[in-house]
């Protein structure tokens, strides 16, 4: 199936169409540099057309007017479409973005399908409310879809990030315009076709590829978009909030960067498990994860033993051909990101950190973009590699001496997405977890979760939550209907 052909045209009002001005950009595979297809380079006119289609679909209630149970059935069929096309979607994701195909199949496709199915199942089980008023009134508190939802997703988990947003938005009855990253737009375009095949009406789910300044900005600024949901960098997230205010004061929900601290105390209940989690989580998806535990804090008394074990695991994560089932770390998404990672590695060395593993670009596949799994020891919180999000397979190791010390270091960062604590002391686990300023704190594991729990961060890691029933809060309006009752009794 490596000879798949791809359609890079936009998907607007149920049809594949070229950009209004005919412009395209090349979609190159980071696996080996091959040209996958030319993708529509959409701009403001295309965004206008997609928003108009979404607005028309919302206003005539072809989707929002369906009974929740009917939308549920369609959403479940949508999820089933993903599973039916799982191999195609996984291969597309790998060729487009560089991740190992075995993870694209087992993680990305399955997670996206599960998310869509879960929100479909949930939508007819979420009840409205009646307020506890006096007997002279009946006050109804109901949820209504917000209207037209603009969605902008990143390149690292194209299907999963899209599903986290479009699933609750669609299940609630909204119409959606999705702008995928120009670095990995292909599965998003395919999702729109599968949604149509499942029974989601034309105009309800539109996908408009393009660059941020040319397509993303017009979407965030559009006066007929009621809500904008974004996952990506903190720098762009701030711009999204400004654009929302400059336009129609649309709701803006942003899930942004992270520099998550992974804290291992000397009384860790299972040091081998902690090492495996620390190494596996930072190198998973080539380190291109906002929640990657990129700051590893190890209590000074066990740091030497911890690093000895960690270095023995590094060879397992050497990058290889993502199309081979044995590969666990694939390609960096594009040349720009590869150069960024290498600049951070150089910065770490220049600022005095000790490079103890990796640190170089390699080419296990000719023409591909790969970097070795990299570990720095002797890192301090003032170094660039400890402060800024690298989005690559680079682990910074810091040490600490007591709980107060490590909490201070861990919280000394602009981000607050995730964190972890490893200790057998239940009081210490609770105390440190409560003190950490992060949206999710893991205890004696890293990154275990499912669709039932919210995902999002504190501080400059953004606002709002993806996943769980809390996501419906982003895509619905809460309405009060107050009915006066003049009782004859």
How would the blueprint of this fold be written?
Layout: E1 10-12, E2 15-17, E3 24-28, E4 35-40, H1 44-59, H2 68-84, H3 86-97, H4 101-122, E5 129-130, E6 137-145, E7 148-152, H5 158-171, E8 175-179, H6 186-198, E9 205-207, H7 212-221, E10 227-231, H8 234-246, E11 251-255, E12 261-264, H9 271-283, E13 295-299, H10 303-313, H11 335-350, E14 354-357, E15 361-362, E16 370-371, E17 374-377, H12 384-387, E18 394-400, H13 403-411, E19 415-416, E20 418-422, H14 426-435, E21 440-443, E22 458-459, E23 462-463, E24 476-484
Parallel strand pairs: 7-8, 7-10, 8-9, 10-11, 12-13, 12-20, 13-18, 17-18, 20-21
Antiparallel strand pairs: 1-2, 3-4, 5-6, 6-24, 11-23, 14-17, 15-16, 19-22
Helix pairs in contact: 1-7, 2-4, 2-6, 3-4, 4-5, 9-10
List keywords for this structure.
single chain, 489 residues, alpha/beta, seven-stranded mixed β-sheet, six-stranded mixed β-sheet, 14 helices, 24 strands, 21% strand
Describe this structure in words.
The protein has 14 helices and 24 strands. The model has no long low-confidence stretch (mean pLDDT 97). It is 37% helix and 21% strand. The chain has a seven-stranded mixed sheet, sandwiched between helices. It is of the alpha/beta class and 489 residues long.
């Amino acid at each position: 199936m490596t000879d798949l052909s791809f359609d890079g045209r936009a998907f607007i009002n149920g049809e594949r169409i070229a950009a209004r001005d005919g412009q395209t950009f090349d979609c190159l595979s980071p696996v080996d540099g091959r040209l996958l297809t030319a993708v529509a380079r959409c701009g403001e006119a295309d965004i206008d057309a997609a928003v108009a289609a979404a607005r028309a679909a919302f206003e005539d209630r072809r989707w929002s007017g369906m009974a929740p149970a009917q939308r549920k059935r369609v959403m479940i069929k949508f999820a089933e479409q993903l599973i039916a096309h799982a191999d195609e979607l996984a291969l597309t994701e790998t060729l487009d973005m560089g991740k190992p195909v075995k993870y694209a199949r087992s993680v990305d496709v399955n997670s996206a399908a599960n998310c869509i199915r879960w929100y479909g199942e949930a939508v007819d089980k979420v009840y409205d409310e009646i307020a506890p008023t006096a007997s002279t009134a009946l006050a109804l508190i109901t949820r209504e879809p917000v209207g037209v939802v603009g969605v902008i997703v990143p390149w690292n988990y194209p299907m999963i990030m899209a599903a986290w947003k479009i699933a609750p938005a669609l299940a609630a009855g909204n119409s959606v315009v999705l702008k995928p990253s120009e670095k990995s737009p292909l599965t998003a375009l395919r999702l729109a076709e599968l949604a149509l095949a499942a029974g989601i009406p034309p105009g309800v789910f539109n996908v408009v590829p393009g660059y941020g300044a040319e397509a993303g900005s017009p979407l965030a600024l559009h006066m007929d978009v009621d809500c904008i949901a974004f996952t990506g960098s903190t720098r762009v997230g701030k711009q999204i909030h400004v654009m929302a205010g400059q336009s129609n004061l649309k709701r803006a929900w942003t899930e942004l960067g992270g520099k998550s601290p992974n804290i291992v105390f000397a009384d860790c209940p299972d040091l081998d498990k902690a090492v495996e989690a620390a190494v596996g989580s930072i190198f998973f998806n080539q380190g291109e994860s906002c929640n990657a535990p990129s700051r590893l804090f190890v209590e000074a008394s066990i740091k030497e033993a911890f690093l000895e074990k960690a270095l023995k695991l590094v060879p397992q994560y050497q990058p290889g051909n993502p199309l081979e089932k044995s590969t666990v770390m694939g390609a960096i998404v594009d040349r720009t990101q590869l150069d960024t990672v290498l600049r951070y590695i150089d910065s770490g060395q220049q600022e005095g950190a000790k490079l103890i593993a990796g640190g170089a670009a390699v080419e296990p596949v000719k023409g591909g973009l790969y970097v070795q799994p990299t570990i720095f020891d002797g890192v301090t919180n003032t170094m660039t590699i400890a402060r800024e999000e690298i989005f690559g397979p680079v682990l910074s190791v810091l040490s600490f001496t007591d709980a107060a010390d490590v909490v201070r270091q861990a919280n000394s960062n602009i981000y607050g997405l995730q964190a972890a604590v490893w200790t057998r002391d239940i009081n210490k686990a609770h105390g440190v977890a409560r003190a950490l300023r992060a949206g999710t704190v893991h205890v004696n594991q890293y990154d275990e979760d499912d669709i039932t729990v919210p995902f999002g961060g504190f501080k400059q890691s953004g606002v709002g939550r993806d996943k769980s029933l809390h996501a419906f809060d982003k895509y619905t309006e809460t309405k009060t209907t107050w009915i006066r009752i003049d009782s004859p009794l």
